[in-house]
Every structure is written in structure tokens, then in C-alpha cells.
Amino acid sequence: MSENEDQSVISEEELYERLDYYLSAYGCERSLLCVSELDGFLTAIGCSAQELAPDQWLTTIWGTEEDQPEWLTQEEEDEFLSLVLIMYMETMNALVHGEISPVYLEQEFDGKFQLVVEEWCLGFVRGARLAGLGLDESNRDFYNEVLAPVRLFGTSTGWKKLENMVEEEVDFWRDTIEPSILRLAQFNHPEIQGAQQQNAKPHTLH
Length: 206
What we know:
The structure is a single chain. This protein is mainly alpha-helical. Helix 1 (about 10-25) packs across helix 4, helix 6 (about 140-155) crosses helix 7 (about 155-165) and helix 6 (about 140-155) packs antiparallel against helix 9 (about 175-190). The longest helix has 23 residues, at about 75-95. The two termini are about 25 Å apart. Strands 2-1-3 form a three-stranded mixed beta sheet. It has nine helices and three strands, in the order ααααββαααααβ. The chain has helices at about 10-25, 35-45, 55, 75-95, 120-130, 140-155, 155-165, 165-175, 175-190, and strands at about 105-110, 110-115, 205.
């Protein structure tokens, strides 16, 4: 490591690994259970026209008030908070610049690796409910349009619809997730520069 390299800067891989550890170690069935869900959740908060301070959403990561972790040490609690805020700031910074890079999972099926977007969409739907996304009656058609992909992959009703789709249809809806969420972010935050194709960032596999 060079003398000029900041040893306090955590790598993306380590960030995700540490967050996954805490979410799995302290979470319950009502918690966000992986980094992919957490990233979707944070992205939804960033897309909302209503600005939510961290103390308005941090506890909901775990579920209800009764689900809050009983931390083994203060150091663990402090580290988790620090890691979540790092991920939150990175997500907000990307959206401000008209970019989105979802943290999707990748799993092996029959010897082939496939993109798994369900967890990310689950997290987004949860964050959207907390932030009140889609409740604006005057723009209901727009919200229904841009939220359709995440609702399809992130709700039990959507999963039933997916079961009746051919592979090409599923692929189409999966490909519309990112552009739809960018449209949503820009709609609620006109100050965001238009996300030109050259600014688009690829999704992150985890």
C-alpha cells in the first residue's frame, strides 16, 4: 500500500461483506436481510420528493421497534451505523448525478449465472412505502408506470404475474427497472441532470 493511500477508506467489497454480516446476524424475518435489499431501500428514499433524515429510516431497517438489535458491543453498533451512512451517501450522490448502479445478486442455476433482482426490488418497495412514493393522486398514472417493474419483482402479487410470463417478457421487465427508477428520481428532483446514456452505470453484482 502506498504512503498516500488512505487506509481508512473501505473497499466496496468489504463494505458489502460487513453490512451483510450485520444484517444476517442481527436481523429477523421483518428486517432487510442483505445488501441488495438495503440498496433498493436506500434508493427509494433517495427518489422521494420528501426528504427523510436518517433517524426516520434507520430503525425501519430492522422492522418494528421490537425488532431493534441488541448489539453485543457499542463498537459493532457504531460500525454498522457508519457503514450504512457510507452506502446511503454513495446512493444519494449517484442519484444527484443522474446515475444508478443497483446492487443485484447473482446466483448459479443449472451451471449458469443469472441476475437476481428480487431482493433489490423488495427493498425498494419497502423504502417506497416508508417514503410515501406513489401516493400522489394527481400523478398516479406516472407512478404506476415507473413503479411497475419493481412491484413486479418485489411483491407477491408481481411474482404471480411473472409465473405466467415467457422468458422474453421477464427479461423486458427486468431491463426496465433502472431506467424507470431514474425517471422517478428525476421527476421528484428536477435539479438532477438528465441521465444521458453515457452517464449510465452498470449494476453491481454481489
